[in-house]
Design a protein that fits this description.
The protein is an all-alpha fold. 85% of the residues lie in helices and 0% in strands.
Amino acid sequence: MAAVIAEGPIGFWPEHTRNMWGNQIWFDLLLSFGVAWTLIVPRARALNMRPAVWLIAIIMSGSIGLLAVFSRVLFLEKKSKSREVV
């Protein structure tokens, strides 16, 4: 959050367009996000989570938000399995 406050909401852009390495990192981030999001969304919907709300968190915080979504999915899956056993 400090980076967004200091550099602005699109402060990442110059870093990703400065050279070919920055461009490569940008595409790696986009591809890994796309794969993770594609795998998480069906599981989240099955648990009655609202993916759009979580997408906003991911856009605002990057991979921290993605990890939060994934941890929430794992938590809810474990919780629902423990209810089935009882």
